[in-house]
Amino acid sequence: MRAFFVLTALSLACASASAEAQAPTSRAPDAPLRTLDPAERDLLRPHLEHGPALLAHFYDSHSDISSITLAGLVDAPADTVAAVITDAEAYPRFMPAMDEVSVTAREGRQIAYDWSWRLAVFRLSGQNVMTTYPGNARRGHRIDIRAVGGDLGVGRMVWRVHPEGPNRSMVVLAIRLDMRGANYVADQLSGGGRGVFRTINTILGTVMLLGTEREAERRAGHVDAPGELAPLERPALDMMALTRLIGQGDLVLLDREGPAVERVTVVSVMGAREEQVRPVALDPEQFGRSLVHGSRAEVVERTAEWVDFDWRIPLPLVGVSGRMRLHLSDDVVHVEGRQGALDEGDWYFDTHVYPWGDTVLVGWARFDVRDTARMVRGLVEDQPDIGLGLTMATQVMVVRSLRNRVHSH
To answer: Which class is domain 243-408?
Structure first.
């Protein structure tokens, strides 16, 4: 929701503000991007069988803008996947919302291209440079893309395609885009910086990853059999094995059935003891305010077993509201939608305590971002991949807001 407002605001500036003025001091185009090492890929592989994973990094010593890393399994050979990624001129055929790509220069293994991205009634545009490194079906491929200008700012994307067998690949995409200076509105919004950048990076990365997956599998002749949504259950996680990975950032696992969300899981180190974390997680006003930055919440009814609270996001164009119920428990925290926006949503949270005392918040949920404002619904119905990206980004927003509230108490 917040991401859509930001994108809408950015588009309104395109006609009157110069998209040429980029942030000259940004280190995003040159700072290294971390993907996943072999041990981390092995750890995530069972989860990737059900959908993509997102690692939203906490910080980066090389840049003041943190990066995100997305990973997914593709039922296609590594060479086929790499051919899809490097076929920039074909992006409009399989990348949702990417309606035009024009190659402006070619030199060796590099191409420069202009792109435009159609969202609802407006359009974003920019310029990228792609470098393809030598690779093959045995050792995999690397493709480096630099965003050198446009409405999404400057930055860098790194694709890694790892063979998983003759007809399967693991694709890892790392992104860091810095929108400061992209246009006037983006520059004004940079005060809210990291959350804005992270959300848009997540949405863009999800669109690119899932579009590439579909096209590579189409070229390989793979067809997915449709299925049904499974009951919402707690995920099976090896918390000790995840320690190093979640020490780098918030981990989101998306189980999907086509465009539908079967379950979205978030695993987040809270940097506090359990007795500090649980009171915040059990506070309905704190949860309501954590849905999106700027949201408000008010308790309307309280019993010994549950608390009902109204929440509202007072934003232009996409302002929404609803009622939720938080079930009071010493065990798993359960929040369910009751009325208004997100009234079909279910969120569960539990804590895991490491032997050294640090607490991890594990959340699993099912909700549909289309069940919000009319403009958001129209955008996501037109481009379902945007909705999946926004679903993952929303979970990161919630846990980061809860973590900030834990440390402010």
So the answer is: alpha beta
Burial of 58 (0-12, 13-18, 19+ CB in 10 A): middle
As annotated, the residues of the chain forming the CATH 3.30.530.20 domain(s) are: 2-35+62-220, 243-408
Give, in order, the Cα–Cα distances in Å from 382 to each of 97, 118, 370: 9, 11, 11
User: Look-up: residue for tokens 């305590």?
Assistant: 353
The length of the chain, given as a count of residues: 409
Q: How many angstroms separate the most distant Cα atoms in the chain? A: 69
Place of tokens 């609803």: 322
Candidates 117, 123, 97; CA nearest to 13 is 123
* Residues in contact with 215: Cβ distance below 8 Å, sequence separation at least 6, in sequence order: 84, 90, 93, 94
Handedness of CA 392, 143, 197, 245 (dihedral sign): positive
Mean pLDDT, each 10-residue run in order, the chain (409 residues): 36 31 58 91 96 91 81 97 96 86 96 85 85 90 95 92 95 91 59 70 93 96 84 95 96 91 96 92 76 75 93 64 89 91 91 95 91 68 84 90 84
CA-CA distance, 336 to 347, in Å (whole number)?
A: 6
| One-letter amino acid for residue 329 of the chain | S
3-state secondary structure of 285: helix
Strand, helix or coil at 384? helix
Could you give the count of Cα atoms lying within 13 Å of 236 in the half-sphere of its Cβ? 4
Q: What is the pLDDT of residue 286?
A: 76
> 2-35+62-220 sits in which CATH class?
alpha beta
* C-alpha distance from residue 247 to each of 294, 353, 362, 364, 409 (Å): 27, 14, 14, 19, 22
Q: Does residue 256 sit in helix, strand or coil? A: strand
What is the reported pLDDT for 13?
Answer: 31
